[in-house]
Specification:
Layout (H helix, E strand, L loop, with lengths): L3 E2 H15 L9 E3 L8 E6 L3 E6 L5 E14 L3 H18 L18 E17 L4 E14 L3
Length: 151
């Protein structure tokens, strides 16, 4: 069974929220675990505690942290729905942008011991909820892989 790292999750959630808020194309500020009532709104939600991917004898490890990004829009027409999907796809492109050598252009900073190595979209954007007042929430799921070095 994979070991989980709850302490890592708290640090990563805060670091990712701060990092997402540096995205130049964001339509509004990312909140943690709260979409609020405004349209548009953005939220990051952790889906599980960080899970062990690989462990080393010296105590170092590689772990993965799954999270979802939500965008809330007024679902009045097809254009707003397409805008929500485009927003999540644009974010995915920004998060996973590679340089000519195949390295990530940018990564969040977690702390001195946890170094992100990869972010990937694991589920394409789709509708997550539709409400009676016409508001709709769209979601995309991502995974952040990071390593922790012990000496």
């Amino acid at each position: 069974m994979a070991r989980i790292f709850p302490t890592d999750s708290v640090l990563i959630a805060k670091a990712m929220r701060d990092y997402l808020n540096t995205w130049p194309k964001k339509p509004t500020t990312f909140m943690l675990e709260d979409l609020g009532k405004n349209v548009p709104s953005l939220m990051i939600q952790q889906l599980a505690a960080a899970q062990l991917v690989k462990a080393y004898v010296n105590g170092s490890y590689i772990a993965a942290w799954s999270f979802a990004i939500y965008v809330r829009v007024s679902g009045d027409d097809t254009a707003s729905r397409l805008d929500a999907i485009a927003c999540l796809n644009d974010l995915a492109e920004w998060l996973t942008e590679l340089d000519d050598d195949g390295n990530f252009v940018r990564m969040p900073v977690i702390d001195d011991t946890r170094k992100p190595t990869k972010i990937e979209m694991t589920s394409t954007p789709s509708i997550a909820a539709r409400y009676d007042d016409g508001i709709e929430d769209y979601q995309a799921v991502f995974s952040l892989e990071y390593k922790v070095r012990r000496t």
